[in-house]
Fold this sequence. Notes:
Blueprint: H1 2-8, H2 17-23, H3 30-43, H4 82-106, E1 115-118, E2 132-135, H5 154-161, E3 185-189, E4 194-195, E5 202-203, E6 216-221, E7 224-229, E8 234-239, H6 253-266
Antiparallel strand pairs: 1-2, 3-6, 4-5, 6-7, 7-8
Amino acid sequence: MGALLGHIYLISDMTNPYEQVTEAPLKFNDSQKLARLFTLLEDSRQPVFAHLHWMGTHGPNYFPEEQVFSSGLNLDHQDTKNQLFYYDALLEFDRAVEEIYAYLEENKLLDNTILVVTSDHSQKWTNSRLPLVIDFPDGDAAKKISVNTENIDIAPTLLDYLDIPQPLWMPGQSLISEEYEARPIFTAKIPKSSKDPLTGKVTYPESKAPFYQFGRISVIVCDQWYELDLNETTLNSGKVVGHSDACAGDIDPRTAISLIMKHLEQYGFDASSLQGLLKKEW
């Protein structure tokens, strides 16, 4: 509350969250989040659900406490060398996970904790595989899944493990269910932005019907992905790097567009403007 009042009365500067996420001019406060997590676990007398959103690996700039890959490089001048800083940020994240695990083990909480490690998107928002590791207390559900899964599968998985019915409104499937079925994966992005070279201001196209804030939609079937630009009606495709499941074969552009249209319509969007793409020669 004190910090908020300081901002209101212009006593202290307020961090611009949009600038922090898009430009990362300063180091994220991940260490404070970690300390807050441990305090929460120590003080709570009831079950805790904690979501720790680690931002140090987000970019576009990285500020690792220890420079290994970027040793000798200046943190203030990352530019084309920022990939090395990114690797160091990953090491810092790994150490944080190790610290959390060690805390749970030391305080005898491992046998009463479900630990989930994942990411909301890949570096630079590419269509690639993301880490998803779920550590259950007893190890009964231990297995490796090679087919594509989604972040929306996490909640149903936790509910299934806790023997709590999945609400009808909740999408996704339980990863520990024997009835889990692989299906097309859909991802959405905002429209392409432009950046003023002088001010650095990032501008996005106006949000309007029929797709509003969505600018690009991707569909992934096994190791094949297609990305449809809803504004420019262009289609790109490629392979998911590091895919480990056996695939029967590629899908064609029309099938991909049809899947995207059905997905949009399922959630109430008018996809009729895309109908002509089904007749186009790709």
